[in-house]
Amino acid sequence: MAKFKTRARALDMLGRQQIAGIPTAINELFKNAHDAYADNVEIDYFRKGKLLVLRDNGIGMTRADFESRWLTLGTESKFTNRKTPPPSRPANKSERAIMGEKGIGRLAIASIGSQVLILTKARRGNYNHKIVAALINWKIFELPGLDLDQVTIPVREFDELPDRGDIEEMKKELIDSLNDLAKNDDITFEEAQSIIQIITELDVSPIELNDYLIGDFSLANDRSGTFFYVSPVDETLNNDIDGAKDSQDATKIEKMLMGFTNTMTPEHPEPQITVAFRDFRGNDNLYYDLLDKEEFFAPEDFEIADHHFQGIFDEFGQFSGTIKVYREKTFDHKVGWNGNNYKETECGPFKLNVAYVQGLQRQSVIDSENYGIITAKGDKYGGLYIYRDNIRILPYGNSDYDFIDVEKNRTKSAKFYFFSYRRMFGVIDIDKKWNANLREKAGREGFIENKAYRQLQDILKNFFVQLAADFFREGSSSGPKAEFWVQKRAERETYYKALERRDQQAKVRKEKFQTTLNKFFDDSKNQKHQKDIAELIQTIERDFSSVAHIEDPEEAGQALINHEIASRKLIDDYRQKIKINPPKGFTISKDTSRDFEAYQIELQKLESGLLQDAADNIDTIVEEYKTLLNIEIDKRKRLEMAVDYISAEAKKAASAKRKEAQEAVVEITSKVKELANDLMIDLDNQIRDVKDRFKNLNVSNEEDFDLVEERKIMEADISRGKDRATQTLERVIRQLQGIYWDKDSNNEFITNDQISDAMAEELEELRERVQADIELSQLGLAVGVIHHEFNSTVKSIRGSLKDLRAWADVNEKLEGVYKNIKVNFEHLDKYLNLFTPLNKRLNRQREFIPSLEIKTFLIDLFKARIERHDIKFKHTKAFGSHKLFGFRSTFYPVFVNIIDNAIHWLNQNDGVEEKVIRLHADDTGIYISNNGPSIPTKDAERIFELGFSRKVNGRGMGLHISKEVLAAENYKIYLDSPREGGNVTFKIESNNS
């Protein structure tokens, strides 16, 4: 009797050659972990060592399970029959739908690398089985002429994770088996040596590695699970992770592994398993989280998307659900399908939940920030995902796999077919019970193309084509429900264009405003204003000197008055030249607002200083020439001419603005008339077109002519024209009615322009404040989370150092190691001690704090940096005898922040011979000075504002928080006049001093 024999190569064909690629193989292993009732399955990939570790905390396998199920091809290991007991299920977990079917999915691991070490431990009931270890080299299964039963697979059992020595013994058994095959001429010596080289290079110690790896995975005590150590990893994995250089598209790993469970739809089922993939690219213990869920779609994205479709396809393929357009109007909708002549389908009923984003932002109701985020996700991960029992089926969701012709149709006509994968994200929900005929291919490249799958395809193709016609199409081929989308899209485009035009105008004004401000500060820094005013005075003196040559006293007196008026005009012209009007019609950032406030202060200084001096100088010159020429000038006449000049200038300016206002009124009136006329012409044309259709109507055959329907169509056409005209004019009327002004209590006019500007500025400030508060909250939460871990970890390290000290005392070789660790930890500990005063806040008390204790704390903390940058840290006798009253937790961080800033800026000031930080005190408070770069006048107040910083990548929080916490204790901090020997001085004083 003849029998089939199985070659070893059959395993390679069913495994590595069957699977589409490494991402698909990893997906298959994730599914196996799900079937094993794991809560977590995680991958750690070490590029330098070409090692991939996959661990799950599932039920694991006994030795019998491993040999009779895992090492047996095509087993019923996940199904029950009369010969095979059912798979084990933990008592505390609900039954899961099994993803694997064919008994060959485990072979997918051969695609990842040429060799795998498997560790698995089972817990059945209250009994803990031993750890089962197996070493498999997949290269052996590629050898021709070798039967499957000739391949040796070393299997061992251990009470705990094996060490390097245990693995070496397993490697030796595998190498010996290859040498025996070579001796028996089953394989060549070269083939054996090639594989032995790979086995020899395997360097894994599971017991050491597990302490190093991230995640709570263990095979000790009552824990169970399965660990795979793949090495060497196929180098194509790097390409699958990295993708094309400089490409913004999702990589193969991202496309195939993102969204392993459905976490994107609102009210999605709780995932039964979570996955992770950490990519360690160097030896620095830093990794990239390749499956960061923050990068993928979330329920919040469904909430903000433009459109949302949700419903059920019944057993006949008919859709019934809701279509929400522009987050505003929801339609109950049905989409029929007659592809199966209204018989029950083979594919079965299924659910759909899809969100869609308009392709252009000007047509979207999503704000610009979220639109950018959500379309970036769409570009990478957009598509229609299929989930069976909440586990993703590959390759659906990959936009490159156009299984329902979405992109194919779009290339024919984007307007007609509307949809695109890159703007779509959503799920098709199926399950084993109702959709059993949808079966995956062995290679996990989608469903087998049987009748059930073809029906599923046809139903979905029909649905999206019909949905586009019903809701998202213009013209005669669109449905009545599409009107809302057409109208809303037009509104969005009109609004966007108006906003874009306004923003463009505002941008030009902003840039001009900022340029003018910058020029003022540059001129101020270069003392140009002083030079300009000095030149003005010289010009004025030169002009007055011409009076000395006039002999007629009366003529000379008149000339003096004329020169006085002309001179004051020169000064006034210069004042207007450097004057910058407040921003109108646009909002400015907080930084620019601070600059403008600083400008106003500087301008006031010029007004009351140099410009006033120049004006006073004119009076002096006039008096000097009166004395020199011995002439009298009528004071009344002099005053009268000055008032006449000022009055003429005032009238001139007001008249110019009046003319401008009148021209604006004429222009607006003309535009409103023109708009109203155009709208009436359009409406009239619309009515004429409708009436013109009468001649084409065939009313002779009453059976074919539907009067009611035809009347509705004509009424709708005319109503659209009427609505367009009336709504447009209503918006214009509201704008005109919005023009407002009134007098305040000071008899000053307030306009709606001022109110709008004030509201815009307040909105901008609130936005910045909210963002800053969020960052502060995140910092606070982070500190709260790590606080306990910090304390316990530091205590543990301190205890371990004491233990190491004892060993170092009896072992000279450890002395150097101990000292090095101790010195470095003490340096780190000084920074950690910064948290100590903060941690006492729950049971703290106010006390008198000697200033020298604060300095000692600062020296301990910053000693290394101060010495490294060669900075002198000094204090005066007065500081040494001074005390502060309050909480240490309040004052310590304030001093830390100021000294940290001082060190930073001193280090930027290489031109200083001796870098100095000096502490001083007197009866009014404490002074902290340094001789680093001086702080510009315009920044004197700004440095205490949240978010302001001149540091590269500075967050601008330190001084703001310092000011806030001091204020809570009735203290204040401000920038004082620099003390002797310093360029910057901060002062801390009590509000009671």
From TrEMBL:
- In this protein, which residues make up the domain named Histidine kinase? 785-992
Database matches in PROSITE patterns: HIS_KIN
The organism's place on the tree of life at top rank:
Bacteria
Q: Which InterPro entries match?
A: DHp (IPR043836), HATPase_C_sf (IPR036890), HATPase_dom (IPR003594), His_kinase_dom (IPR005467)
> Known SMART domains for this protein?
HATPase_c (SM00387)
A Pfam match: HEF_HK
Coiled coil segments of this chain: 651-678
UniProt entry keywords in alphabetical sequence: ATP-binding, Coiled coil, Nucleotide-binding
Which molecular-function annotations from GO does this UniProt entry contain? ATP binding
What name does this protein carry? ATP-binding protein
Supply the source organism for this entry: Taibaiella soli
